[in-house]
Amino acid sequence: MKTYEINVNGKVYQVGVKEIDEATYKNHTQQAETVSAPAATAAPVTGGSGATVSAPMPGVLLKIAVNVGDQVKAGQLLCLLEAMKMENEIVAPEDGVVSAIHVKQGEQVEAGAVLITL
């Protein structure tokens, strides 16, 4: 595990990041999709890039700002995650089309859980 310091609005936070191998990543991704698949808001749209957006930390999903089929730009708000009494904006990592939403508003998610697929 590597430890990093992150400065957010003048306050320094220490975070630990654990590196995992590809097999472990695929296993976690498949488990997250299997567990949250019934919560998907619509059938997946074909033609997406396959990029996934995951929860950076455990928390509660306060708001989902997009719908399946929406065009999004890099940096656009996808959802709001409340963690440690703070609202965290989860944004699109790249331009694309929302092909699946794997969570629902009010749901508790774990760190690394797949939230949205582009």
TrEMBL record:
Keywords: Biotin. It comes from Isobaculum melis. It comes from the Bacteria. PROSITE patterns: BIOTIN, BIOTINYL_LIPOYL. Residues 44-118 form the Lipoyl-binding domain. Pfam families: Biotin_lipoyl. This is Biotin-requiring enzyme. The keyword NAD does not apply. CDD domains: biotinyl_domain.
